[in-house]
Amino acid sequence: MLNLQDMSAELAASYDLEPSLTLVDEMRDIYERVDRVLPEVEFAGYAPYIRAINRLKAERNAVILAHNYMTPQIYHGVADVVGDSLQLAIAATKVDAEVIVQCGVHFMAETSKILNPQKTVLIPDATAGCSLAASVTSADIARMRAEYPGAPVVSYVNTTAAVKAASDICCTSANAVQIVDAMEGDTVIMTPDGFLAQNVARESRKRVVYWQGSCIVHEQYTAAELREYRAHDPGLKIIAHPECQPEVAEEADYTGSTSGMIDWVRDNRPEKVMLVTECSMASNIADSVPDVEFAKPCNLCPYMKKITLEKILWSLHRMGEEVTVPAEHLEPARAAVERMIDLSQRLNV
Ligand code: 13P
Ligand code: SF4
């Protein structure tokens, strides 16, 4: 168990971590990408960590894969690859470095390990979970199979390795409709996200039966509140993640994966937009779309926010926490993830 006080003390004794405005000047290229959301004095506190992490990354032959929900200081300061779950899974298959530091939640690090069993995969905080991944077990998958004999099981990547291993194929929010449509038979079982499954069912040719898990971040948004925001601000564009309730997705001008949402803002340049998702998304793209105003509210993912610059430095310093996947799950889970990547590339999604 990580003792935060001991961690801070050991890091302070090993690296120069004093806040520094001089360092901010030396890192202008990075600071210019976050200056809309981070005051210079705040960045002065992050800069020494960014310097230490980037140096250590080179020494350890490590690469940092970071999800779109990471804070701006991680996303712009230390990440080598940023993206949605599908992009990170594909990036994990192409990594040359010996060490992968996964800045995201545990199922994402497990996916990287599944695709790179010979590499060292580290997660800066192993308790960074996910309400969806926690909602379903391989025994639940077996029960669903018994209820719908012969129906293929499509599991969202937001699942444990054990659940992936019990599934026929994985999907992400970027390719779910296409993957479901490509399955044989009339009925497809989707786990664990009930709302994603209902959103997929609206667009798919298949009958979709599903597990009732949900994301604690996206389930909070309601269609009524979105209608209220629109009534106050008729020009407001609203774009949502498909983990939201179907009524919320219907109310939105666009629904897509986290990277799909980023691309939509960059391509459409709305005057004012509300990103119905995790808060860091708007902060991470603010600098690249200076003409766009981001409307609040947004919700924080408490699991994603467990990953901090300090814990990333600790992770590289101590080479921990190493992510492992039980041998019996490794091959079948890899087959389910690789099927998804292959199919997605064939279908061009
Ligand atoms: P994306 O695959 O769209 O990045 O979503 C992952 C996630 O956990 C969203 O809550
Ligand atoms: Fe899981 Fe929701 Fe957090 Fe994504 S935002 S990691 S789905 S809890």
TrEMBL record:
Keywords carried by this UniProt record: 4Fe-4S, Cytoplasm, Iron, Iron-sulfur, Metal-binding, Pyridine nucleotide biosynthesis, Transferase
Q: Which GO terms describe its biological process?
A: 'de novo' NAD+ biosynthetic process from L-aspartate
Molecular function as annotated in GO: 4 iron, 4 sulfur cluster binding; metal ion binding; quinolinate synthetase A activity
Functional summary from the UniProt entry: Catalyzes the condensation of iminoaspartate with dihydroxyacetone phosphate to form quinolinate.
The entry assigns this protein to a family as follows: Belongs to the quinolinate synthase family. Type 2 subfamily.
What organism is this sequence from?
Answer: Oceanomicrobium pacificus
Q: Which residues bind [4Fe-4S] cluster?
A: C130, C215, C301
Q: Give a GO cellular-component term.
A: cytosol
| Cofactor binding comment, as recorded | Binds 1 [4Fe-4S] cluster per subunit.
Q: Which residues bind iminosuccinate?
A: H67, S85, Y156, V157, N158, S173, H241, P242, E243, T258
Q: Which Pfam families does the entry mention? A: NadA (PF02445)
Quote the EC number: 2.5.1.72
**What are the subcellular locations of this protein?**
Cytoplasm
- Which InterPro entries does its entry note? NadA, NadA_sf, Quinolinate_synth_type2
Q: Source organism lineage?
A: Bacteria, Pseudomonadati, Pseudomonadota, Alphaproteobacteria, Rhodobacterales
Domain of life here? Bacteria
State the needed cofactors, names only. [4Fe-4S] cluster
| Name of this chain's protein | Quinolinate synthase
Keyword Magnesium applies: no
Predominantly, its location class is cytoplasm
Question: Which reactions are catalysed by this chain?
Answer: iminosuccinate + dihydroxyacetone phosphate = quinolinate + phosphate + 2 H2O + H(+)
Q: In which pathway does it act?
A: Cofactor biosynthesis; NAD(+) biosynthesis; quinolinate from iminoaspartate: step 1/1
